[in-house]
User: Which sequence fits this backbone?
DNA sequence: GTGCTGGCTTGACCGAAATCAGGGCTTCGG
DNA sequence: CCGAAGCCCTGATTTCGGTCAAGCCAGCAC
């Protein structure tokens, strides 16, 4: 379902009007004319949980904006051990620029909607618009910051701290509404217990045990296995291990 | 010791002539004229092991090219637990663009020589030269790949696999000479046992034990605690845990 | 020389998390 | 209806790596 109905009188493509990527995502780098040309090449997809987006060691033919849902980036050892090395939320840009092969797998963790572009279109637009490359650069720097934060969690935190840190991270990315340390925050976990364990370097049993512990201690409530309410984010924070960057 | 002796007849600043960053580093993005103006702002430093380059939560006033030595990037929890989140080798660019505060510490692991520029000079030059930003972007993407590789090691590998993976990584970054799976490779470890443990999410005792085990098994030889010889890189690889990206 | 410090190694012991096992609940398809 | 498959929870047991402790050695100050 190709988009791009090249209407000359419309300065911005119809489908881009309500698109989050148009504002906070990478498409915000493009002027109306560029956006029209770019939108001619895009396609929209919906992918169900578990669907593969990018296979490890496969050539990459397209890039995408993530419009809704959560994507998990994974790496797998040959004996099956798996590590989730990143989570992406809308309006993130998906794909590794400047490399023909991906070194990681990308998979839909929840239902996901994408706006995809052919590889060549992104590369052409990037040459044309330094601002586009600039936005991708900034996103990459943020991903690097996140990756390094996760490294501390993986290498130096205990199981209880890991699970608390995960909930805090998800809460901050998924919650809708005001952000307050003392207001109740609730959200749906985008991952199963097994996936959380692959994110934190634990087993699903340990994740389950730590979640029940947080529940019986009154830090969180859980409904239907997935819906989490955090009454006090600050109590959750206390369980994350001393914050990085004291002072 | 400011450099930049603005000699009009010299198309390339004297000190840049023999500089690795001029070729494979970020300065390769600049034309001679830009390089002359840029070099006027640079200073060279030598820093001894343990010297701090960037403090966590401190404002960043300068960026640098790493000319020689190894820099470790660390994050610390408030109770003192530490994680090394990256190692940098020449001719890497040091510093986090677009943020006034660093979220990590950078410290000299070995003796280090730097070519430093004021923050403003880098930002000005980046606006002027998209190619400079492009190179920084590419380095950042490589750092992200490295970070994600390390995440697999931290989250899913055993202690013996972690230590083997570390030696393999260092061997590939520090060795001089031909790269062959069967030729002996030797190098000096740039980190102490305690630092290696902070890199791998282990204790110094465990690192020591695993190194001993690799030694008695004949995979490596160690002289003076620091100098390592790997007779067969392929035997070392076998101990790293199944490779990521089978096929 | 002596003593001190810091890095490294090794051993004994312990504990946090993995492993193994069982059972409950929901969903889905016959 | 039944049964199978997934996901989740919990208990019992094991084990890997952490903790504690001791000792060696090289470098350095005095």
Assistant:
């Amino acid at each position: 379902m190709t988009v791009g109905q090249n209407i000359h009188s419309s300065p911005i493509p119809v489908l881009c009007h309500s698109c989050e990527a148009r504002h906070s995502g990478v498409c915000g780098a493009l002027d109306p004319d560029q956006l029209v040309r770019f939108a001619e090449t895009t396609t929209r997809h919906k992918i169900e949980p578990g669907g593969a987006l990018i296979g490890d060691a496969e050539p990459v033919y397209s890039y995408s904006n993530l419009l809704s849902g959560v994507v998990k980036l994974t790496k797998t050892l040959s004996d099956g051990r798996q590590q989730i090395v990143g989570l992406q939320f809308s309006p993130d840009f998906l794909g590794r620029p400047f490399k023909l092969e991906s070194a990681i797998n990308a998979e839909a963790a929840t239902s996901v909607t994408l706006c995809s572009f052919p590889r060549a279109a992104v590369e052409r637009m990037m040459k044309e618009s330094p601002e586009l490359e600039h936005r991708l650069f900034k996103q990459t720097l943020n991903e690097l910051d996140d990756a390094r934060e996760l490294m501390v969690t993986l290498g130096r935190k205990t199981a209880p701290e890991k699970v608390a840190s995960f909930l805090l991270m998800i809460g901050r990315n998924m919650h809708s509404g005001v952000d307050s340390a003392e207001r109740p925050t609730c959200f749906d976990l985008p991952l199963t217990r097994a996936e959380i364990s692959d994110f934190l370097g634990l087993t699903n049993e340990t994740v389950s045990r730590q979640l029940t512990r947080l529940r019986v201690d009154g830090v969180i409530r859980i409904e239907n296995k997935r819906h989490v309410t955090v009454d006090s984010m600050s109590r959750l924070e206390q369980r994350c291990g001393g914050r990085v960057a004291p002072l």
Q: What stands out?
A: Residues 192-194, 204-205, 208-209, 211-212, 225 of chain A lie near DNA strand D (CB under 10 Å from a C1'). The CA atoms of residues 143 and 182 of chain A lie 28 Å apart. Chain A touches chain B through 50 residues (CB under 8 Å).
